[in-house]
Amino acid sequence: MTLPAAVRVVEVGPRDGLQNEAASVSVDDKVAFAQALLDAGLRVMEPGAFVSPKWVPQMAGSDEVLRRLRRPADARLPVLVPNRKGWERASAAGAREIAIFTAASETFSRKNINASIDESFARFREFVPDALKGGLWVRGYVSTCFGCPYEGAVDPARVVDVARRLVELGCQELSIGDTIGVAVPTQVMDVMGRLQAALPPAALAVHFHDTRGTALANVLAALQLGIAVVDSSAGGLGGCPYAPGASGNLATEDLLYMLHGMGIATGVDIDKVAAASRALAPRLGHRLPSRYLQACAPAPVAG
Ligand code: HMG
Ligand code: MG
């Protein structure tokens, strides 16, 4: 089995994680959480989203979070941007990296961004060329690549088609999303294999939600294909507000535990990530789903 020697972990907890929390987390707490993750060695992290605060109130204040973070020189902090208005806000907040997002299924696209897939590209054309001209790094997400909460099965040819359009638009990296956590490893081999055949392989990342417990197995399948960029969320926070049933992302701690145990380097300190998750948990009012966190919970205080 040939596996990558190193993996770049893309931390999405402060965005994909917090966007789905019922509790409202203050900007101070968001900054503390995100800063602790950067201090743990994560070098690509999404600090927030410039989407409509009426649609996703949890992402209000992303401009302040981005401005207040101490950014290591080699870090990338992509923020989600759906349209020209989001781009103007992201630009004003000093974003140097952005992530655009669309889907492989029409119904999910409409529910998530109130636009068809074609309309999402029309919106992207209104700002992505400016972002690229300005030297920004642009990541593209394709959601529902392995199944849609509204339409069920998704044709892999649709995934390839949408991914190709994002590359043609200028995206430097594509994150292939299992939005509702339905994928299994053989399907990952199939869909990712088709994408590798059609696109520059260096551009591919995987983004698994762990709804049905298959995320780590899916990562292993992707690693076996040589894919070396994996999204995850500290503590296993996460979900998409417009994907019923979507639970947390694969937990960063669980991913790091597996990668490090297999001798794959990440440059990230697992204990510092776990400490960041533990510090945030009381603000959320529920236990975090990461298995590593549960297995390595600090011993209860006697008495
Ligand atoms: P819309 O309502 O169709 O847009 O929303 P609109 O252009 O008609 O604007 C309506 C109002 O929103 C106006 O305000 C606009 O100014 C305002 P009003 O006149 O009513 O006061 N507005 C904005 N305000 C702030 N920032 C903006 C913005 N745009 C419009 N950027 C829109 C369209 C896309 C904005 C909306 O549908 C939206 O924000 N959706 C949120 C989608 C979202 O954040 N989903 C979760 C992230 S995606 C995800 O989690 C999946 C992923 O993790 C991968 C995976 O797991 O598969 C990435
Ligand atoms: Mg997601």
Describe the main β-sheet briefly. 8 strands, parallel
Q: Percent range for helical residues?
A: 40-55%
Radius of gyration: 18 Å
Q: For the terminal residues, how far apart are their CA atoms?
A: 50 Å
State the strand order across the main sheet. Answer: 2-1-8-7-6-5-4-3
User: Which molecules are bound besides the chains?
Assistant: 3-hydroxy-3-methylglutaryl-coenzyme A, magnesium ion
The share of residues in extended strands comes to: 5-15%
Number of strands: 8
Q: What is the overall silhouette?
A: globular
How many helical stretches? 13
Structural class: alpha/beta
Average pLDDT level: 95
Low-confidence stretches: none
The SSE string, one letter per element, is EHHEHEHEHHHEHEHEHEHHH
Short key terms for the protein model shown above:
single chain, 303 residues, alpha/beta, eight-stranded parallel sheet, 13 helices, 8 strands, 41% helix, 12% strand, globular, binds 3-hydroxy-3-methylglutaryl-coenzyme A, binds magnesium ion
Structure write-up:
41% of the residues lie in helices and 12% in strands. The chain has 13 helices and 8 strands. It has helices at residues 13-17, 27-39, 62-68, 84-92, 106-113, 117-125, 128-133, 156-169, 185-198, 215-224, 252-261, 270-284, 291-295; strands spanning 8-11, 44-45, 79-80, 97-103, 137-143, 173-178, 204-208, 229-232. An 8-stranded parallel β-sheet has the order 2-1-8-7-6-5-4-3. The model has no long low-confidence stretch (mean pLDDT 95). The structure holds 3-hydroxy-3-methylglutaryl-coenzyme A (HMG) and magnesium ion.
